[in-house]
């Protein structure tokens, strides 16, 4: 069992203990006394809180294939519990304030006498957040950016429209309808290029083929092609090589530490492999080029023509200062999910210089999308399922 599982289990224990304690306080006087017996109540709390890791992680490790509806239900429940933890904690903080304000003592006394009324209010808020989050996760929006690159295109044009998708996380309970709608909307945008910036497959390549994603994503149309890169989930899953084969069957050009000169649009495209490459033990039989660490950006930049606009694809938006130092003009990244849902969005925003949206620094621009799909709970709030549309203006070529 690795550190990730230990951290997850520890977080689950804290979540269950806190929510169980507050639930027992709020509803202990109105629920059947038999249910409140410690040897009934706490095992029930443990089963509910541990359903997500038990269903998703341990079943996968044991090779047990569970129905998609059970995977979906446990994931939604886990998201509701996390948002519930934050909601109840905020309510408790307000309770501490109200307790110390003399003019609110009547309110405090009422809550103490009728705790279940506050409990039902909290449950209503949690259910509302869950419903809204599920809706936002399955209703894609277009986020438009207009930006300028201060270099000319070699073909003499001055405009490019790039559509970015990221973090589809195709799994056994992914929404095929969401993917179908996204493909149709992307094609209606008539992009010059399409970038898919990682985490297309969640953990196993099997659902990708079962849901006919090679055919569906292969229907994406653009003037100059569809380009993708490797990401952490490609290396955390079953087989990086099988994922690469799946993307190739979807008519995607897979860039792995590659500098690609695109003569027709007149740009240089740099596709970085993910930071996770070479960072962990991979399945037996994996080729050495996947086990080795990724190339430094400086090595890739040295191969690029400085007169052409440089566009970088890098799944994780970590090494921003390095991209600025190497004079990258425009970078597209994903990975963060914009925190996906409250309160994780606050944590993610503190971890990344740009966790969602557009960052400009001199002549360098970075677009980080919150992604189209979801990891774990299929919930988004305040983020949403996103399709990025970047209309880029280039410097006119000299006569």
Write the layout of secondary structure elements.
Layout: H1 3-27, H2 33-36, H3 38-61, H4 68-99, H5 105-113, H6 115-137, E1 141-149, E2 159-165, H7 176-188, E3 193-196, H8 206-210, H9 213-217, E4 226-229, H10 232-236, H11 240-249, E5 253-255, E6 258-262, E7 267-271, H12 288-291, H13 297-301, E8 310-313, H14 320-325, E9 330-333, H15 344-351, E10 357-361, E11 364-368, E12 386-394
Parallel strand pairs: 1-12, 2-3, 3-4, 4-5, 7-8, 8-9, 9-11
Antiparallel strand pairs: 2-12, 6-7, 10-11
Helix pairs in contact: 1-3, 1-4, 1-6, 3-4, 4-6, 5-6
What does it look like?
By secondary structure, this protein is an alpha/beta fold. The chain has 2 domains: 134 residues, no CATH class; 253 residues, Purple Acid Phosphatase, chain A, domain 2, CATH 3.60.21. It has 15 helices and 12 strands. The protein is elongated.
Q: Which strands sit side by side, in order, in the main sheet? A: 1-12-2-3-4-5
Task: Kindly report the oligomeric state of this protein.
Answer: single chain
| Poorly predicted regions | none
- H-E order: HHHHHHEEHEHHEHHEEEHHEHEHEEE
Number-wise, the strands total 12
The proportion of strand residues reads 15-25%
Largest sheet: 6 strands, mixed
* CATH class type of the largest domain: Alpha Beta
| Shape label | elongated
Query: What's the CATH H-level superfamily name of the largest domain?
Result: Metallo-dependent phosphatases
What is the typical, i.e. mean, pLDDT?
91
Structural class: alpha/beta
Q: According to CATH, what is the topology of the largest domain? A: Purple Acid Phosphatase, chain A, domain 2
Number of domains: 2
- What is the end-to-end distance? 63 Å
Percentage of helical residues?
40-55%
Question: Taking Cα atoms only, what radius of gyration do you get, to the nearest Å?
Answer: 24 Å
Task: Give the count of helical stretches.
Answer: 15
